[in-house]
């Protein structure tokens, strides 16, 4: 087995470590509200999230294709195994730091930042990054601007507004029911509202878990596919032993195809990570930011899942963390502005802003360190 092949396998294993950490780091995205409102026990919620993450991760590969071929110009950047390992380590280090502090930062942006920082470090030029491409960027375009930077601001804003709107509609309907008499007025009592939305929130939390899997798991799929394409082009996969023949990723002349084994492996690893739980971040999202009831949890999860599934269908790697956090803020503001603990929000926003530059800087430094040590 050649050194190049060993490094390729190291990339795949490092990517799966990132996927596992992504699972427990972002578990809170889909279950924080359902745990906070006591609709489900933490164990029940984590197991449901793991299962729905698994199903969602197998649902399409549009986001994986964006990460594999829409962010880095492989004609300029040296996409070696060492560079990809540095990119993944940048994301892993940042995820562990923010997990330790209980900050719900974006694993998606951590990976994108690491990938961009490592690519720039490999050639010392920002032209290694595809900034923008195509006259129709929302559907077929590539580039960090349209696929990362713009959605980084628009998707949380939309999630906030959608959460606020859904809660407004629900409050309006309930207030009209309270004015009624007989059966309609009876079911609008708080006890029955909590009972109804307690059941509805199970469905919305499951949908949120599915949405998380459909977007986040695919990013690691894209990294593994990128590594295999680069290895194929470099001749690393020539004369593979039979037991490693599945690493071939041929037929990529027209459009990148994500092999089924990559999708299944990433899905299972993310589900395992999700099952491990991420209690520090669950506590921040579900308890520290705003006090939630089942109706609020339902509105926040519905708003966030809608935004994430829309982005996944367009191949946009959005942050599930940003979306659910913003939706919870919107729901909280529908109660009253000071219902939100803004000091907690401020800490979260700093983590959001710093994620891409921090992971990019870590990955860039690691690439330079490898060059100094002669490992790249």
Quick structural overview:
Helix content is 73%, strand content 0%. The protein is mostly helical and 376 residues long.
User: What's the domain count?
Assistant: 1
Contiguous uncertain segments of 5+ residues: 135-140
The shape, in one word, is elongated
The number of distinct helices, counting runs of at least 4 residues, comes to 14
The amount of beta strand, in percent, is: under 5%
Mean pLDDT: 82
Describe the protein:
With 376 residues, this protein is mainly alpha-helical. The protein has one domain (3-373). The protein is 73% helix and 0% strand. It has 14 helices and no strands. It has helices at 3-25, 27-36, 42-57, 62-69, 81-100, 107-123, 144-178, 182-187, 190-234, 260-276, 279-288, 294-313, 320-335, 342-373. The radius of gyration is 21 Å and the shape is elongated. Residues 135-140 have low confidence and may be disordered.
List the helices and strands and how they pair.
Blueprint: H1 3-25, H2 27-36, H3 42-57, H4 62-69, H5 81-100, H6 107-123, H7 144-178, H8 182-187, H9 190-234, H10 260-276, H11 279-288, H12 294-313, H13 320-335, H14 342-373
Helix pairs in contact: 1-5, 1-9, 1-10, 2-3, 2-9, 2-11, 3-9, 3-10, 4-9, 5-6, 5-14, 6-14, 7-12, 7-13, 9-10, 9-12, 12-13
